[in-house]
Specification:
Elements lengths: L18 E5 L10 H10 L6 E6 L10 E4 L11 H13 L5 E6 L3 H14 L3 E5 L17 E4 L2 H13 L7 E3 L12 H11 L6 E5 L8 H13 L7 E7 L5 H12 L6 E4 L4 H7 L2 E4 L12 H8 L4 E3 L12 E2 L4 H12 L16 H16 L9
Parallel strand pairs: 1-2, 1-4, 2-3, 4-5, 5-6, 6-7, 8-9, 8-11, 9-10, 11-12, 12-13
Helix pairs in contact: 2-3, 5-8
């Protein structure tokens, strides 16, 4: 469907649903990006509005929302100026939605464009901060929505601190946690294929680092753990796996550097993992000692998926990671991490997959956003923030 009309009719012939235009990077396969997964999972569970997303003309069975075929490609990790201008011009001249829902990592240029659109078109907006900005300085240049939502208390509080450091009263900011998407349990055959690709036996314990190699200290910290693990005679059947994506040209270089540094440890490097769910399921534990989440959503989707699959997680607890439930949080100290890994390997911390993740459930997140939509679309409550 490509016809965009204000107030799409409900299927049962009742009064039309208000339309909400999501503004983000191109939404479509492959869904390996936290922002794209968030928009997909939220729009698939909205009931009181008709969602529209920006994408391509390519078919997408995973997405129930109506797509505006605006972009040429599938969506980069960081959309360029051309894509941003396409979205700006669409909203300025063609969008007829009742409300705009922006989902991106705020930066002064994009936020200024979104603010100007609001003034020109007088369309109410929600701004979801998809990931923490590079800096929280000059927060008023980053926030523009009539309602602002962060996905963690940590990010909200950094904005509050930034405003107060300038002697300014911060605006209201809602906290709505990210969605933990439903994950089908991988088949034994899928798990066997992953282990075969890694050249490990069914008995080997896998410790998986599913993160960037070049964006934080996470990979270097896991490399230190890998070296220490090889010194432990009781952990000889343990293999450390770096599952990463080539987000930047530096990723391949960093993979070569780490592989050389870990020669003899048995560490594996798996770029662009074809079946991340099978890898998460067969892992004994997920290692995530990341200190900087710039460029990532507050709670990386891969960690929420690991929780769904019942795989133990160890994080550094830094930044928003400390709010991740059902995880072990420890400052990165090698003895403490080795002790926690040992306890998991001995089977003391294995739990069945959770049935309900509370505020992370798709329905719970959708209802929270629908409450904000209703507030902004109600004639008595609608009003601009400034």
């Amino acid at each position: 469907m490509t016809g965009i009309q204000r107030g799409e009719a409900k299927k049962d012939g009742a009064s039309p649903l208000p339309t909400v235009q999501f503004v983000s990077k191109s939404i479509g396969p492959p869904f390996r990006d936290g922002t794209k997964c968030f928009v997909r999972d939220l729009t698939n569970h909205l009931e009181t509005v008709h969602p529209l997303v920006l994408g391509t003309s390519e078919d997408c069975s995973e997405l129930q929302a109506e797509r505006v075929p605006l972009y040429d490609g599938r969506g980069h990790f960081a959309p360029g100026l051309r894509d941003n201008m396409k979205a700006f011009l669409w909203l300025l001249t063609r969008s007829r939605a009742n409300l705009w829902h922006f989902v991106f990592a705020p930066n002064p240029r994009s936020s200024q464009m979104a603010r100007a659109l609001g003034w020109l078109r007088r369309v109410p907006s929600i701004q979801t901060v998809a990931s923490p900005p590079r800096t929280f300085e000059s927060p008023a240049r980053l926030l523009f929505g009539d309602r602002v939502v962060t996905q963690s208390r940590w990010t909200r509080d950094r904005f509050f601190d930034a405003y107060r450091a300038l002697g300014q009263e911060p605006p209201p900011i809602e906290v709505i946690p990210p969605i933990a998407p439903a994950v089908p349990t991988p088949s034994p055959e899928a798990i066997a294929r992953v282990r075969s690709a890694l050249e490990v036996s069914p008995e080997d314990e896998l410790l998986v680092y599913p993160g960037d190699l070049e964006m934080s200290q996470g990979a270097d910290r896991v490399a230190l753990l890998a070296k220490e693990l090889t010194q432990r005679t009781t952990l000889k059947r343990t293999t450390v796996v770096f599952a990463y994506r080539n987000k930047t040209p530096r990723a391949a270089l960093r993979a070569r550097e780490l592989s050389e540094a870990l020669s003899g440890t048995g560490a594996r490097f798996l770029p662009e993992t074809p079946d991340i769910h099978a890898l998460l399921r067969t892992a004994t534990a997920i290692l995530f000692p990341v200190d900087d989440l710039y460029g990532k959503v507050d709670m990386p989707i891969v960690l929420l998926e690991a929780i769904r699959l019942g795989t133990p997680i160890i994080t550094s607890g830094e930044g928003p990671l400390g709010e991740l439930t059902r995880a072990h949080h420890h400052p990165f100290e090698i003895p403490t991490w080795l002790e926690t890994i040992g306890a998991i390997l001995r089977g003391k911390d294995r739990e069945p997959p959770p049935r309900d993740l509370g505020p992370h459930e798709p329905e719970a997140v959708a209802r929270a956003y629908e409450t904000l939509y209703e507030e902004l679309l109600s004639p008595r409550k609608k009003g601009r923030a400034g």
